[in-house]
Amino acid sequence: MMEIPSRTILKILALTTGFFAVLMLCYLARHELVWIGTAFFLAVAFNPAVEWVTRFMPRRHRGLAIGTVFILVGLVFTFLVVSFVPPLVQQTAALTRDLPKYTDQLVHGSGFVPDLIREFQLVDRIKDSQDQLTNYASSAGSQFVGVLGSVFSSVVAGITILALTFFMLLEGPAWVKAFWRTVPDSRREHLEHLANQMYRSVTGYVNGNLLTSLIAAVTTALALALVGVPFAIPLGIFVGIMDLLPLIGATIGAVVVLLVAGFTSLTALIFMAIFFVIYQQLENHVLQPVVYGKTVDISPLLVLVSVLMGAAVGGIVGAIVAIPVFASLQILIKDFVERRRAKAS
Fold this sequence. Notes:
The protein is mostly helical. The protein has helices at about 5-30, 30-55, 60-95, 100-110, 110-120, 125-140, 145-180, 185-225, 230-245, 250-265, 265-290, 300-345. The model is unreliable at about 135-145 (pLDDT under 50).
C-alpha cells in the first residue's frame, strides 16, 4: 500500500482551500469585478484616442491627453443628453398619459393589430394589463425611496468605473512595460503578437458595437418620425440599446417598434417592417464587416453562449463585455492548439 507523505496532503488541502476561498471572494465581489471589467474594456476602447491625442500634448503628457479625451467624451455625452432627454421625458409622459386611449383603440378600434387582437380573443388580457400598469403607476410614490437608492448606486458605480478607467489609462503603459520585462526574450515576441491580436479584437468590437448601435438608434428614430409614429426618440434609443446585444438584441428592438407602429396604422407597420429588413441586411453585410473588419472572428454559437453567460453574471454590461472576452480566449486556445500540432509534427 502506497503511503502519501503528510506534506503532499497538506499541499492538496491548502490548494483546495485557497481555490474555494478565491471562488468565494469572487462571488462576494462580483459586482465590483463587473465594474473593473467594464473599466478595463473602456480603457482599451479609449486607448487609441488617448495615444493619438498624446502626440499633440506638451512633452507628450499622457495625463493631459486622458483628461482631454474624457472632456471631449463628456461634451458629446452632454450634447446627447441635452438633445434627447427633454423630448424623451415629454414623449414618455405623453405615452403614460395616453395609455388608456391606446388600450381602448386596441380593443375597439379598426386596423391590422386591433383586428388580430379580437380574432385571437385577447381583449381581456389587454384590459388586465392596463389595470396592472395603472396599479403600478399609483404605487410609484411608495417606491420613491427605492428608486433613489438605485440612482445613487448607479451614480457611485459610474464614478467608480470612470475613476478606474482613468487610472488604467494613466498607469497602463507602465504596467505593460513592467510585465514584458519579466517575460524571457525567447517568448516575448510571440506573446506580444498574441497580446496585439487580443487588443485589436477588443477595441474593434467595443468601438464597432457602439458605432453600429448609434446608427441603429438614429436611423430608427428618423424612420419612425417620417411615418408619424409617436414616441420616435425613446423608441429609437431603445433600439440602439437593444442593438448592443448581439444576435437577439436587434430582433427584440424591432418587435417592440413594430407593435407600436401597428397601433398607428397599417401603413406605418409595413413601412417599419420593410425598414428593419433592409437595415438588418445593411448592418449584417455592410456596416459590421466595415466597422469590425477582421478584428472579431467568433462563431455565432460562441456568441450566443458568451452572451447568455455574460448576462447571467453581469446583466446587459456582462453580455456586452462577454464577446471580446470569449474572442480573446478563442485567440489563446487557437494559438495553443497550433503550437501543440507544430510540436507533434
